[in-house]
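User: Run a structure prediction on this.
Assistant: Running it now.
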Amino acid sequence: MKSSFTAYPIGMIPGRRLHGCERTKNEHMRNLGLFTISALLIMACGSKKQEPALVADSLSANVITLTPSQYTASEIALGKMERKRVAKRITVNGKLDVPPQNLVIISAPLGGFVKSTDLLQGMKVNKGDVLAVLENQDYIQLQQDYLDNASKLEFLQVEYDRQQELAKENVNAQKALQQSKSQYESMKAMVSGLEAKLEMITISPAALKNGKIKSTIQLRSPINGFITVVNVSIGQFVTPTEVMFKIVNLEHMHAELQVYEKDINKIAIGQQVTFQLANDTTTHKATVHLVGKEISPERTVRIHCHLEKEDKSLLPGMFVTATIETASEEADVVPTTSISNFEGKDYIFVSSGDHQFRAIPVNAGIAVGEFTEVHVSEKIAPGTSVVTRGAFQLMGLLKNNQE
């Protein structure tokens, strides 16, 4: 038995003949339906769900959640915050210096013309070396005055002795004895003064009596050291107030540090000091030796530190930045790798479980080996897991997602 069902094209009504206009309209509707079905099929095929890269809460929450596969790939390691004894440190500024006896300024005691000198800055000199030769007519006059007065002193001494003998025999008047004594004592004082002046210009009075008068004098180094300043030239006239040379002995160099008033009670003799020169990464060690007892107008106190090792490359006057280790005390520490930085602020990540981590602001303090002291802005429950590896990767993911 044949079926009586007859299929008609879309829009065709049995028993009715379509005109040209109606046939065109029905074909258009059929094509539109086929296009719609095709588009839906394509969207259905392309709508395969992808795993999200990460999920993060709002910026204020600082929370990031990883999927299991992402957590495994990131190789995050967890640890605990610990309590350790940490030596507190104070950062101060200062400069290198030498003791007063190791820095000498050379001047001309009586002035004169520079006859000869061969010194240059940086040259090494030993105690007793000739620094310069000076000449002046005043040197000659001083020696003449000494020899003249020394001769008079001998005569007055003989006359005074004679008056004493006469006084014992009551031959002369007491007035004559006193007058002779006064003249002798006055001349003796004058000769002593001239001897002191001669010794200042390195002329020996004893040698002068047996030798010739000199027109020049020699300036000699009083210490071993290095020439740091040369202010003279040959032929130049120098006065007693002018600085001709400076000599510095680099032995026993020390650091003079300025500690602010609020920190001075934390400083004690014997504390360890580490310092660096400006634009230099080399570290040097010293020990607090003396603590000043006066506060400067800048509200600082000077402390004196001895270097543990002499270093010829260090020079007086160099500026230094130093760290003083004060008394230690217990503090919270985490592995240094736990701390990540973003826009100048330090953070650590704590685990909330289920691969979720929260960034907590901290203030990083002193580093002790592989650990760093942290001051946490909020209370963390004991035993909370802290990210010890992968903190930088978490910070990058968190901030990128928030942006």
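The domain at 104-134+217-238 is CATH 2.40.50.100 (OB fold (Dihydrolipoamide Acetyltransferase, E2P)).
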